[in-house]
Amino acid sequence: MADVRGVRDALGARGVRGAAAVLFVTALAVGAAGCSDGDGGPSDAASKAAGVLASATAEAQKKVEEFKAGTDAKSDVRLGDVTKDDGRATVPVTVTNDAPDSKSYLVLVAFKDSGGNRLDTVALNVNDVDGGASKKADARSHRSLDGDITADIVRALRH
Known about the structure:
Elements lengths: L1 H31 L9 H25 L4 E2 L4 E3 L3 E3 L2 E10 L5 E10 L5 E12 L3 E12 L5 E9 L1
Antiparallel strand pairs: 1-8, 2-4, 3-4, 4-7, 5-6, 5-8
Helix pairs in contact: 1-2
């Protein structure tokens, strides 16, 4: 029980809920793929994909936890159209700082398939955006993604 409390203290209530959601989604993804006959079939591929998604989501959550004092800034961020290069999805991100002084932003971008299923999550730092100015950056998936891919802003924090 002490281990669970330690995790909760380290992540906070939101982090624990987020970690639980990732585990739940991972379990669903592996379960939905079916059984494998041991030759690297669908279950193997689903396990690898679920592992990559869980790892990316955990890393993104870790970045969010580092900016606990950040202000919600989702309205300051716009995404362009998703493109692919070598199978990896990339989306241009534009951050507009309406504050009078320079700010930095942490933007979490989710890449989703046509069914709305989250395939990857990327944490993007956009540092030193001058007051009253905009700055552009690119969010790129960690791995190759198949099909029609869309991107959504999961969270954006200004600090």
